[in-house]
């Protein structure tokens, strides 16, 4: 899996126009240990570092400091909607230094306090790929299964299926949380993930995907 994801990252960045959604999906869904292994392999395989600042032995705690949550909520509001322009450094610091459980608490309290979803705030304050990336982080922190369901849907929907992304999603999630993703997909889109894949693929490629999904 480490080699597979390292090559996927390289190929994603090598293609014309970096695919930010794919980069976000791969990096965000890995643990610090997995990122460390990917970074080590990537450096040896390609001769340069992928992520030099990852602290591989850091384990995010699920214990949330409510005082810190409240402080972050106020900082995000004062650094965004409450002022003209956006204090981007505030958002970057909070989103890059807080674990997913903490960010979910921040998002819940922000909406309860100010009446606006934090995901709407970041896409308004950052009218570019940064806003989309921050919104993806929030969605992932709230419900991983829903996040990956939307990634599967985006990959399959439209005029042409993004087969490389579909293959990566299936392989990388089949041994972890694909069962939960399938339930979320059915609930969100009114059809099973297997049906969606069957409708958009064929041949031995289809059979291989369905074997992993089912």
Automatic annotation (TrEMBL):
Organism superkingdom: Eukaryota
Keywords, A to Z? Annexin, Repeat
SMART domains listed in its UniProt record: ANX
Q: Which PROSITE patterns match?
A: ANNEXIN_2
For molecular function, the Gene Ontology terms on record are:
calcium ion binding; calcium-dependent phospholipid binding; phosphatidylserine binding
Q: Does the keyword Glycoprotein apply?
A: no
Q: Does the keyword Translocase apply?
A: no
Supply the PANTHER family for this chain: ANNEXIN (PTHR10502), ANNEXIN B11 (PTHR10502:SF102)
Q: Family per UniProt?
A: Belongs to the annexin family.
Specify the protein name: Annexin
Per the UniProt record, the source organism is Daphnia pulex
């Amino acid at each position: 899996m480490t080699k597979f994801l390292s090559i996927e990252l390289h190929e994603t960045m090598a293609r014309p126009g970096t695919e930010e959604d794919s980069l976000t999906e791969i990096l965000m869904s890995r643990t610090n240990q997995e990122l460390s292994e990917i970074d080590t392999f990537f450096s040896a395989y390609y001769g340069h570092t992928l992520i030099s600042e990852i602290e591989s032995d850091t384990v995010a705690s699920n214990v949330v400091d409510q005082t810190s949550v409240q402080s972050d909520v106020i900082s995000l509001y004062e650094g965004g909607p409450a002022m003209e322009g956006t204090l981007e450094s505030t958002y970057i610091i909070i989103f890059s230094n807080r674990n997913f459980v903490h960010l979910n608490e921040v998002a819940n309290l922000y909406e309860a306090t100010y009446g606006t979803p934090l995901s709407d705030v970041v896409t308004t304050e950052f009218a570019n790929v940064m806003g989309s990336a921050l919104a993806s982080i929030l969605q992932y922190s709230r419900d991983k299964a829903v996040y990956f369901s939307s990634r599967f849907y985006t990959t399959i929907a439209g005029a042409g299926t993004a087969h490389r992304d579909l293959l990566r999603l299936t392989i990388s999630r089949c041994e972890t949380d694909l069962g939960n993703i399938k339930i979320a997909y059915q609930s969100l889109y009114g059809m099973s993930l297997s049906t969606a894949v069957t409708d958009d693929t064929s041949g031995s490629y289809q059979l291989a995907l369905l074997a992993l999904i089912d």
